[in-house]
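YM 10:42: Gamma-glutamylcyclotransferase AIG2-like domain-containing protein sequence, as discussed on the call
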Amino acid sequence: MTGRHGEPRLPFFVYGTLRAGRHNHDLYLRGSTAAEEPARLRGALLYEGPGYPYAVEGDGVVTGELVTAAPERYGGLVAVLDRLEEYFGPGDPRNLFVRVERTVHTASGGVPAWVYLAAGPVARELRAKGTPIPGGDWSARG
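YM 10:58: structure's back
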């Protein structure tokens, strides 16, 4: 099954303000999901941001949740999340984040999901000067 522009209709891996109990979860996800479960993304590092974290490709693990949109809400949800994450499309120089397909791991195994990673210039800046979040869990930081 595909979504807009022929993209696959994948669940979303969320690791910051969209996690259950965080303010953007209630604003954007409440009532729009069919399932939510704990998950981990391997091959990424987490960095502090201005009130939210950034995931960057790297040698680590990020803790979050796999969120499956209710089928009738998928198209609207992907559009809302792209706006929230300032993702304007592949290769757009305005992107703060990029939405990419990655395998995330749940209790039942690996699942393909959309993940918002820091866009190229942001990722380079974070690697050079950013503050890593030890353990890759934004909710558990001190």
